[in-house]
Amino acid sequence: MLHRRALLGAPMLAALPVMGQAQESWPNRPVRVIVGFPPGGSLDVMTRLAAEQMTQRLGQPFVVETRTGASGNIGAEALARAAPDGYTIGTVSMHNLLINPHLFRTLPYDPERDFAWISAMWDLPNVAVVAAQHVPAQTLQEFAAWAKARPGKISFGSSGVGTTIHLSGAYLAGRAGFEAQHVSFRGGAQTIPALLSGDIQYAVDNLASYVGVIQEGRMRALAVALPQRWPTLPQVPTMTEAGIPGFEVSPWHLWAAPRGTPRAVVDRISVEVRAAWTDPALQQRALTMGARLTGSTPEGLAERLAREKPIWAEMVKVSGAQPE
C-alpha cells in the first residue's frame, strides 16, 4: 500500500518544481505597457524611461503601446480588459481613478475593482506657462491683469476634460479673477504648438512637457504649483510666492495591471521599480525632465489613492467642471 501511494504521489511531487519554475521564469516573452496619452508628452516619455529600466532589469522587452483618447479613459479601459496573465501592465494617471468618476456619467472601467495596483511611479508637478512671443506678462500677477483686460479673449489648453491640467487651468482663472475658455487637446504635444502660435494664451500643464521650450526661452514659466521651487528651475516662483497661496497641484501616475494578475508578478514589478528608482543618476535625470520618481508597494499605492480621493473631489467641485 505504501509503495502504491508513493507511486501515485510521484507525479504530483514531480510537478511541483515545474510549477515553481514556471512562476520564476516570468517574464519569458515581451510585456506590453499601455499608455493612454500621445507620444511625445510627459506621460509617454516617463513610461518609456520606466520600460527601458524594466527591460534592462528583467531581460525581456517592455514594449510601450499608445492607446489615446477620452482623457486617458481609452487606455485605462484597454488595461482593465486585458488578460490578467502578467504580460500587460499600464501607466494610469491618478485622474482616471480620482477625478474622472466625478466628470463622466459613466466610465468604461471600474476604478475600484478593475485593477491590480503595482506601484506609484512619479509625480509630475504643474507649471503655469505662457508663450513669450504672444504674452507680455513677466509675472503671474501681470498675466492676471493682462487677462482681465481681455474678457472673452483668453483660453487655456489641457490634455482633456477631467485631467489635472484642465482643473488647474480653470482653478487658476478662478483664483486670479479672470475669465478663460477651456480648449481640449490630445496631449502636451498638441497644446504646446497652440500656445506658440497664439491660439491659446496659457496652460497649467505638466512641467515635464515644457522644460525644453522654457529653457529655450520660447515659453515663460510664471509659477510652479508646488510648496517649494523646482530644483532645475530655481528662478521660477511657487504659486504662493506668485500671489496665489495654497495652489499646490502635483499630478502623479502609477503602474497597474488587470485585476486577477498573479500577485507574484505584481510584487516582482513593484520591487524592481523601487530598486531602479533608488539610482541617484536616474533621479537626477527625472528631475531634469520635470518629474520626481516615487515608487511604492502595492499597499502603499492603495493607501495614497484612498487618502487623496476626497482632496480631488473637492478640486473638481471648486473648478466648476461639470460631468459630460
TrEMBL record:
The organism's place on the tree of life at top rank: Bacteria
Gene3D superfamilies reported in the protein's UniProt record: Bordetella uptake gene, domain 1, Periplasmic binding protein-like II
Signal peptide: 1-22
InterPro entries according to UniProt: BUG (IPR005064), Bug_dom1 (IPR042100)
Keyword Signal: yes
Assigned keywords, A-Z: Signal
UniProt family annotation: Belongs to the UPF0065 (bug) family.
Protein name (Swiss-Prot/TrEMBL): Tripartite tricarboxylate transporter substrate binding protein
Source species of the chain: Belnapia arida
